[in-house]
Amino acid sequence: MEKARLASLASSDTVRVTNPGGSSPFVLTCDHASNFLPAEFGTLGLAVEDLSRHIAWDPGALPVARRMAQALDATLVETRISRLVIDCNRPLDAPDLVPPVSETTAIPGNAGLSESERAARVALSWRPFHDTIADIISHRLSHGQETRLVSVHSFTPVYKGRNRPWHIGIIHDEDRRLAAPLISALKRLSGVTVGVNEPYSPDDRVYFTLERHARSRGLPCAMIEIRNDEIAGETGQRKWADLLTGIFSDLEPEEAGHTRSHSVGKSVQSAS
Question: Which pLDDT value is given to residue 8?
Answer without folding.
Answer: 45
